[in-house]
Queue: 2 jobs
Job 1
Amino acid sequence: MVFPFFRKSGPKPPAAVDVAGGRAAPAEFVPPTSVSPAAIEVEEIAAEAFSDGSSAEEEAAVLYANDRVEQALATLIQCTREAPCRNDPRPWLMLFELYQLGGERQSFEELALEFVVQFERSAPAWPETAGGGAEANGPAAVRGAAEFAPRGVLSADDAPTFQRLRQAAGEGGGLRLDLSKITGMEASGSELLLDLLQGLKKSGVKVQLGGTGNPVGLLKEAIRGAQAPSHWLLLLELYQILGMRTEFEELAIDYAVTLEISPPSWERSPHSAQAQHGPLQAQNGEASPDAEAYRVTGVISGNSEQILRGLAQYAAAHGEVRLDLSQVPRVDFGCVGNFLNALMQLNAGGKRVRIQGANEMVAALFSVMGIEQFATLERKKWR
């Protein structure tokens, strides 16, 4: 049976085509249920296919799913200024969502004033915890990544472990590094950790750091009167990762005065949105069988197969499957095939699926792709 990614009837959509320079991924993952994978064919379409004959909301949803944020914004802005789209609150809510995810509070507040005038009702409020982007939704888990939680004192003895770790992180596409259990750091240990972080940064490998408050405290003690540059440089690197520019600049001055060496310049680290002071939390899909819902965090992209395998395992213990997407800012277009396929399998196996907390952009994409045929979709609640 064939399920096109359309709610509307009409001619058969074209086969998968290039999206934003790449080919949309086929729907490969099939959760283990009673329906044969061969019985299901999922057809995908590119964002360009929505440019004619589709609503602005649908077009914006698919553009955003392809990470074409500026185009999605432009589409929704134009939509909210022209009739009949201007009279529909849905594109306004989608625009609120994009402003919030992008951390554009001023634009959000200006739109809120227009919304009140247009619809004569209260507008959504800017969430006080929202900082925009990944920070608004917490650090996204690095799925399929190598994991390491060093204990004790870091020293030169850890060199073989760090070498293997760097290789595993590159092969696995990321690293989850929990530093909360370190009790001390020799100069050689600081050098090893610094080389690891900088090497992975240069290689473009994603790193999720936890427990950073622990080494920061240890390093502050270590640099008191110490001449070992590695302690200073590692602390400067951690300040960059944590986005602590004031602390970085103060330490850079102390570094130059104490060691008589020019300090590194401030450079926003690509790991910043993936760092947290406390220990790392469980990854997506690590909910226990008796958990209230299966929670996913971060952008759903190339990690979808692992997430959906966990969903299938979680669903095996539940008649009603609650899928919490309240911490998911975006679902990549290339993953929707896998997602829809998994929901079809669960539905065919007698499972009731309830998707909770989907933001406006994710919910719009799911509606376009027909996911509501196989799951109850509950949007996030605006204050």
Job 2
Amino acid sequence: MKWFVRLLILFSFCIGFDAFAQSDSLRFSVRGTVRDAETGRPLSDVGVSLPGTRYATVTNQDGVFVIKSDTQPVSVSFSLLGYHSVSEPVPSDPEKPMAVRMKKGSFLLEASRVYSGDPVSLLLEAIDLIPENCPSDPELFDCFYRETVQKRQRFIYISEAVTKMYKNSFRKGAWRDRAAIVKSRILTSPRTSDTLGVKVVGGPVMAVELDLVKNRQFILHPSELMQYRLELLAPEVIDERMQFVIRLSPAVERPYALHFGKIYLDQESLSFTRIELSLDVSDPVKATEAMLVSKPTGIRFKPKEMSLILHYRTEEGKTRLSYQRTVFRFNCDWRRKLFATEFTAVAEMVVTNRYPEASPDAILRSEAFRGSEALADKAVYFDDPDFWKDYNIIEPTESLEHAISRLKK
């Protein structure tokens, strides 16, 4: 089975519009950097949240975060796979950034507790418990979404959006789930040689289509699981809770590419905590079929990587998607050229706020972002330094900020 999000190589970029009203003013903000306590290495993709609120974000690749709130934050919580979760008080000086250190997790297994058995049975039981572990009522979410494309090491395309996401009850399937753009912007390379662009088809709708716990026809469907070899690995810790770790690898030959991956299950509730998938690119023909929609005549496409990471967060006894990241790497070259050009397309989405008991009309069908659309079709040009003033976002890395300043010239 193909992924829902694929690549489209084309020659055109963008114009667009905004929709919906802005959110309430987030007047208070906290910023800082999260590092490994032993090595000092910046930690990326750390879950950052404000206790007592539903505001959240993640650190960027430099370990930097900014989180905003409509009330004065008292403390900030941090969580990351393999590390002890921490909660730190907010500095009394609002201009002073936080310097957070996280220690790698260590744990002891109870002598009477043995983790063995059939990973297939474990996974099937976890799938059966999804309606119990996940929300039974519709909900509305604020999200932040970013796409970037690099040609070799140089950014040639950057687009970002604040979105609304509506999720129906987990007992009723995903057919009513929708996403819509609140505010968006785009920046593309002015170089003629960069007009061969790459867009991630689906854009912000990936938060709906790639929620694999909600859309179980992919990977988590019993007929799909039969195609994989499942292995129970050593347990790990996420948010101070022990996790079963199940490794997937292709067990059969299929006419389409399968995946390698890991699935993390909370040992007490069997709720899904994290899913990691990477497309098997050993057969270039199959991998290309999974990744590519179309391309200009005369271009050779060579797949290198297609990966997906999903983070799930349990709050008030229910598990919800909190963060997604997809990475596409491939080479493209014209047949008459000697050397291929490497492209890397990254899309990431973080849930920044949640509104319980949402109405089905929270996002009308006419407003919904469709999977056939790309964010570049709806975004406006970068021009306002306070564009995200009232929204929580994923802070841009230093390299991305440098790229933005260069592309604006």
